[in-house]
Amino acid sequence: MTRRFQILNMVALVVTIGINYLSNTGIFNNETMATISAKYQNLFTPAGYAFSIWALIYLGLLGFVIYFGPFTKNTDAKEKTVLNVGWWFVISCIANSLWVLTWLYEYTFLSIPIMVLLFISLLKIIGNNRGLIESKDFKTGIFLRLPFYIYSGWISVALIADVAAYLKKIQWSGFGISEASWTLVMFAVATIIHLYMVWKMNMSAFALVAVWALIAIAVANQDSNQTVYIAAIITAIFIFVNVCFQMFKKRTAPLN
């Protein structure tokens, strides 16, 4: 069963990367990720450079499927990790691919539960390997912890952005509350999620992705909305400071 999962993981990732590559060629609905994003531009949309993080995510996932794959030397720890991941990595790849297609064909509302499924599958991968993922082993950190912490961190932000895009599409009035005010609410939600991940789940890399995204949101609003610009910077700094404190506390904690 281990080898079957290893092969399935590799195939699923290759297909997902292929679909994501094609998504930027206009082959699907004569649209690209950027053109759809531009249609539903809102105050939570980050500057374009923020999406370059996908290169890092896919590089990390390639490392995962190779290191924990069928062509490297198996160990008990590797086999246990693959079995703990089970179907969840394949599910995450399917959800990722479906999200791309629903986004490009402008089924914006449907893309939200698909993104939720993607987020849940990543958290399941992390949770199922909790005992190993926090080990001090360098290879485990590089090929398991960092890829899924960064990936899930980005998806947590992308999910909020997805909701914002849908609300923009249906021209939601916001109960008379301004778009800027609702964006600040989204910042608050993002802060709560990421502080929980920092202090309760010890997932610093997860939260640093939010810092990256928030700075990109600030850049996107620098010349158009000073309120959102300043709030995004303050939120990014607040989360970053919490990450630094958590890492310092962890480093100085006495060994049991």
Topology readout:
Blueprint: H1 2-22, H2 33-39, H3 53-67, H4 76-85, H5 88-104, H6 108-128, H7 130-133, H8 138-169, H9 179-199, H10 204-221, H11 226-252
Helix pairs in contact: 1-3, 1-5, 3-8, 5-6, 6-8, 8-9, 8-10, 9-10, 9-11, 10-11
Protein name: Tryptophan-rich sensory protein
Keywords: Membrane, Transmembrane, Transmembrane helix
Transmembrane segments: 7-28, 48-69, 81-101, 107-127, 148-168, 180-198, 205-222, 228-248
List keywords for this structure.
75% helix, mainly alpha
The residue fraction in helices comes out at over 70%
The strand count comes to: 0
Give the low-confidence spans.
none
Question: What structural category do the secondary elements indicate?
Answer: mainly alpha
Main beta sheet strand tally, sense and closure: none
Number of helices: 11
Calculate Rg over CA atoms.
19 Å
Strand content: under 5%
The global form is globular
Termini Cα gap: 37 Å
Order of helices and strands: HHHHHHHHHHH
Give average pLDDT, whole number. Answer: 93
InterPro entries: TspO/MBR-related_sf
Protein name: Tryptophan-rich sensory protein
Transmembrane segments: 7-28, 48-69, 81-101, 107-127, 148-168, 180-198, 205-222, 228-248
Keywords: Membrane, Transmembrane, Transmembrane helix
Description:
With 256 residues, the chain is mainly α. Helix content is 75%, strand content 0%. It is built from 11 helices and no strands. The protein has helices at residues 2-22, 33-39, 53-67, 76-85, 88-104, 108-128, 130-133, 138-169, 179-199, 204-221, 226-252. The longest helix has 32 residues, at 138-169. The chain starts with a helix and ends with a helix.
